[in-house]
Amino acid sequence: MPGTDLELPALKFPFQDSPRPGELIEITPDVRWLRLPMPFGLDHVNLYLVRVEAGWVIVDTGLDSPETRDIWEGIFSGPMQGEPMAGVLSTHFHVDHCGLAGYLTERRRLPLLMSYREYFTMRGWPGDLAEVPWQHAEFYRKGGCGEEVARIGRLMFNFAKLLSPPPPSFLCLRDGEPLPVFGGAWRIIMGEGHSPEQAMLFSADDAILISGDQLLPTITTNVSVSVINPEDDPLGRWFASLDRLAELPADILVLPAHGAPFYGIKTRVAELRAHHEEQLQVVLDLCATRPASLFEITQAMFPYPSTDFDQILAIGESLAHIRYLVSHGRLECSPDKSGVLYYRGGSGDLSV
Ligand SMILES: [Zn+2]
After folding, report:
1. How close is the Cα of 46 to the center of ligand 1, in Å?
2. From the CA of 232, how far away is ligand 1's center (Å)?
3. Beta strands at 112-115 and 171-173: parallel, antiparallel or unpaired
4. What is the whole-number distance in angstroms between the Cα of residue 250 and the centre of ligand 1?
């Protein structure tokens, strides 16, 4: 695996300020940036408006709450008053990106643009779970995690109240193609690893990439094996997506879903690859000394999760790294007498 090129330039952030709730910042005459609040450790999500011939397409929506609905209404009656709206595009199914998709498409009678897998994941994601399903309990038990972890694992499904009822139809986004119906300069680039089929928007004319959660400037995107799809290998697909982003021109402006717009796509791709390679090495080093369970590996990779939700994300992300190493023949897996899976092997350097 290639290492980080330390000669790459530092990221540059061309905007001094970020938009306050309800305010728009002009990125170009055809691209505007806005922000909505979130009640989490991650306290905001960036949204963008891009102009196509038919009007403005809203790119990501924010999660659904009375406050975010009010902010959108203020935008429609304020800075966007009289402007034609053409559609709503959600990059992926997480509620900060599609929570208001149903509300906005209904309120303004607009089409929803989304990839096939994201649309149906949004529609099919289980609502709040009253009990731990046996499949989920088994997932955590095999990981050596204990019943309390399985109980808090239900937090992954606790988002129904932040999602307005999804619209009953959508315009399907496809990799490499322009926006359906509207056409224009924007092309879809699909990313994987964080969610099933995340849509990014790239305009060579504007030298801009709207990256969703696939490329963030300061935090690393969660790449997790979900209890819903427990044999998945999302990290392999995440690396493949990073490789595709590395092929884009070096001087484009990246508009992320969290944090500030930045220049330096090649640097950031290299940093993210290096981050995951370091994490893979942590797993290899631990499993070279003794067999370790998922729970033990998670404690080595993420020793200080600050919330229950972070702990569940950490378990999923640890398993993503384990699964990648197993699929590349770097770790072996076998159960103990009680059925808990232990991983062993892993001596040596990741790059060997
Ligand atoms: Zn996301």
Report:
1. 12
2. 17
3. parallel
4. 24
How far does the centroid of ligand 1 lie from the alpha carbon of residue 91, in Å?
A: 9
31-37/262-263 β-pairing: unpaired
Helix axes 265-289, 308-327, angle to 10 degrees: 80
Report the alpha-carbon angle 29-31-32, nearest 5.
Answer: 100
Give the Å distance between the CA of 105 and the centre of ligand 1: 21
Report the separation in Å between the CA atom of 235 and the middle of ligand 1, taken as the mean of its atom positions: 15
Q: Which of 201, 225, 234 is nearest to 60 (CA)?
A: 201
Spacing, Cα 335 to ligand 1 middle (Å): 33
Map out the domains of the chain with their CATH numbers. Answer: 25-130+159-268 (3.60.15.10)
Q: Under DSSP, is residue 169 helix (H, G, I), strand (E, B) or coil?
A: coil
How many A from CA of 259 to the centre of ligand 1?
A: 13
Q: pLDDT in tens for each of the 352 residues of the chain?
A: 444 555 788 999 999 999 999 999 999 999 999 999 998 878 899 999 999 999 999 999 999 999 999 999 999 999 999 999 999 999 999 999 999 999 999 999 999 999 999 999 999 988 888 889 999 999 999 999 988 888 888 888 888 889 999 999 999 999 999 999 999 999 999 999 999 999 999 999 999 999 999 999 999 999 999 999 999 999 999 999 999 999 999 999 999 999 999 999 999 999 999 999 999 999 999 999 999 999 999 999 999 888 888 999 999 999 999 999 999 999 999 999 999 999 998 666 676 5
Distance 94 CA to ligand 1 centre (A): 5
Distance 326 CA to ligand 1 centre (A): 25
Q: Is the pTM above the cut of 0.85?
A: yes
How many angstroms is it from 7 CA to the middle of ligand 1?
30
Distance 158 CA to ligand 1 centre (A): 15
Q: Is 166 helix (H, G, I), strand (E, B) or coil?
A: coil
